[in-house]
Amino acid sequence: MSALGKSFVGLTGLLLLLFSYIYIFKEFSKPLCSKPFVNIGERCFFFSSNKPPTYEYYRVGYKNRVFSVPVIMDWLHANFGCETIDPQARLVTIRNSEEMRLISNYMRYGAHAQTHAVFWSGGHRGRLSAVDDVDHKTLVQFYWHQDPHPMNFTNFVASKPPKRKFQDGFCVYLEFTGEELVMGVAQCDKKIAFVCELNPNGL
């Protein structure tokens, strides 16, 4: 092979290597979450009240769609609200103290100053046999939506789940106290803000 041919082969290889690096860089530099979701840890979150309190609705532009989502809703409609934004989105779940800490830090340092401190999570009494139907034999325990197993991590305000008489409600909310995120229980028809989660890897 002539010197010119060798130079051409070498240049071609160099260009291919360069384009490979550019492609890899672009892939890794892509934001993990698309607005209005924010990245916290390895998941994406949508806070319904994470905006100036100008309107009762959060105007969402997401995946070439523009629509409005109420800032406050009851628990069931909040769940539907998450699915409206993205079919894979669900009300937020907290699986361990590290996830609780990460969201607390976001509330303290990253969220809009007017973001509501109390919001619905995906927790509820009893295992759901459908989105609006509960297995009544399991009402003494708390579950995350679509998880057949009871919660393995809780952080209720009184350091223990509420009493079994259920007068305090069936649905679990989260409250940022200014220092930490704690869990509480309220009637499911109460209208408060909500937070959705989305796993960007689809897992």
Automatic annotation (TrEMBL):
Transmembrane segments: none annotated. PROSITE patterns: C_TYPE_LECTIN_2. InterPro entries: C-type_lectin-like (IPR001304), C-type_lectin-like/link_sf (IPR016186), CTDL_fold (IPR016187). Gene3D superfamilies: Mannose-Binding Protein A, subunit A. Pfam families: Lectin_C. Residues 62-197 form the C-type lectin domain. CDD domains: CLECT (cd00037). This is C-type lectin domain-containing protein. The gene is LOC108082709.
